[in-house]
Amino acid sequence: MNNNDRISRLLKTPDSPLIQFLKENDAKFRALRQQLHSYPELSREEFNTAKLIEDKLHAWSIPTERLTETGVIGILQKGDYENAPRVALRADTDALPITEKGDHPHCSKVPGVMHACGHDGHTTMLLAAAKYLALEAEFDGTIIFIFQPDEEDQAGARRMVEAGLFEKFPVDAVYAMHNFPGAKQGEILIRKGPQMAGTCEVHIDIFSKGGHAAHPYQTTDSVLVASEVVVGLQSIISRNISGIDSAVITIGSIHGGDANNVIPNKVSLLGTLRYFDLEVRDHIKARIKQLTEGICSAYGATCEVRLIDGYIPTINHDRETEIAIEAIDKLIAEDSIIRNKVPSMGAEDFGFMLHACPGAYFYIGNDRDHQFVGLHTDQYDFNDDNILIGGALWSELALHFLKHR
Fold it and tell me: Distance from the CA of 311 to the CA of which of 60, 98, 246, 276 falls in 20 to 30 A?
């Protein structure tokens, strides 16, 4: 199936002016996406990417401002915008510290850095929409294009919100779209409610009286205590929260001692908590501390427990999700819409924007001919067939929101 046939299968109106405009520009945007892929930049280092985005937006007469060092905001206003709704569309821009091992011509030319999560594609889809909305579309309202840095590292969305994103650029809703390996190219996956989990780092240090491994009765065995803690933590999920709620505790690192015949004085555990509800998070955090301290006390050890909150959950708002579904229904064929996307225990910093402003987060399938290549892997590449679909969807969503909110 060629690109045009695939696009026609996905779309309800493959001959609309919007689709024809994006088809005419498709080759240029594919080249742009591949340029971004070849020259990726890590979190908080997206200076060239930000400059490229600004240059494109300025070429289409879209004013821009910087928010944080490498965050770009595009402001598009038309018609009677002072009395009309305002909507924001967000794309992330940063890459990952991974050495690419693909064999395509546009592989990363930056050693140890690659776009392994598709942010190059997200940026390009939003730029494609920006061009259409600026040059061709007629509407009353304001569209804010958010090109957000630092999604992969220190929560650029949180930093933008804290820097006054929605005070300086107030909107009625904010939306984000992420590619999704595991779904057919161009399929749209969406649902109300939880999308991605919140995170909390779990750091536990267990202190004891070490000694010779041949004489454990003369010691307090910190390795044994740590093992009991790891097993005990799993009981929190099964016995301390409702089966209706969802949460995960995983210990990913255990370190203690350096010799086979020495019981160490200290064992350190490092793990993660994932959750969808802030009250559930707080209850689990309290139980982690209580359980760890109780086990250590029972064995005669002591401990230090540090629980460091990271991303908050990404939770779609009902009304804004309904508006997005209405726009998707206008554009995408029914058999390419999945309305019951299963929430993920992965994390996404867009949750900070949704905590500050109503909106929704949804997905676009990325698979190529049923070939699954996961995010954050050294073989990953964004599917360029999605640039047109994603650009069309962003355009349709913005126009639908401004007209029907």
Answer: 98
